[in-house]
Structure prediction request, 422 residues.
Amino acid sequence: MRELWIIVQREFGARVRTRSFVWGTVLVPLIFAGLIAIPTLFSGGGAPRTFALVDEAPAGLAEIFIETLTAPPLSAAQIQYRVAPVSGTFAALRGDLNHRVVARLIDGYVVLPADILDGGRVVYRARNVASITVIRDLQRAADRATQTERLRRSGVDGHLLASILQVTRIDSANINQQGREQGSALSTFLIAYTVALLLCVLTLVYGVQVMGSALEEKTNRIAEVLVGSVRPAYLLSGKVLGVGAAALLQILIWTLIALVTIRGGLLTTLFGVMPQALSAVKIDPTVGAALLGYFFLGYLVYSELFAALGSSVTSEREAQSLIFLVMLPLFAPLLFFRTIIDDPLGNVATWLGLLPLTSPVAMPMRMASGTVPSLQLAGSLGLLLLSLWITAWIAGKIYRVGMLSTGKKATLRDLGRWLRMS
Prediction:
């Protein structure tokens, strides 16, 4: 065990003392903060849009259209509008309006036709008509104006109908096996997506490091010296655990940064995230412990596979061509993300949650989406632990022989022969 501990310390120290580890630990939170801040800073409506309005519609309809479109924005992300009515018909004013748009005197113009209440189309012309937000706002203002006028003509009070049709909000939460609420729909999506993405990314990053370390020692003939003084099983386990400890340290640092940011109110102060939204993102401690277990068991399984891959190839180019095959089962549940979230007890979600190579990603999605039966959860963890033992045994066999085999890439027949060796 002393040899194993020495290998773990060496691999851990070799990772955390590098500049890439330090910069990665610092830059990743900054990058995520930038991904939140940049859209917030640049999502404002910008300068007000100025539109000319040709009114050929029935009396009173244009006033409602202007009132709706020019209402004060509820947030900085919404666009402000200025509407200037012009006298005359569209046929007579069309050339002049087009000239004003080209000359940048106005951003565009809108025409309310005389038959608008009978299905006539509102005309919108501008230098840029690709803005979905502007089209939506114009549509909303036109709908409000035409609906109000139609209600007035039918004898129904428009304000009364608006209050009747007021949108009702839904407060959603999952119920766990103890009968307690454990999160909203927002937290469900965020937790499932975050855990799945974090597992895939970190497993790929640190698994590749394990593979690279094994490949480097093999190509530089360092393995011949190490295997002579350290048992191959200890060498393999030490690499996996040492790199995993570095990953754990990095995750803990990121978690502390996230907690300080959230608890300190920085998200609300800097990015305008409402406290209600933050309080909605919560997770049951039992579920959190299970998610952590799936995360590290999944990491260990795939790291063993990466170590075996690194010991069975002769160059980094060969290894890169096979990485996708190793990672394919891990990324497979992401293809069924919507299916798992919508129906966490369905057949697809159940099987993906039980299969060892897909459960580290699929089961956290299921657990975040609903209450998973205890028998399925225990079976999934049991199969994952069994697969870890089998993977470690297979990887150890390949690693022991592969690290000392140089000169050519191992074939499937070679791998089978290595596994049969005592």
The chain has two domains: 49-164, 183-420. The two ends are 22 Å apart (CA to CA). The first strand starts at residue 49 and ends at 55. Residues 148 and 158 are 5 Å apart (CA to CA).
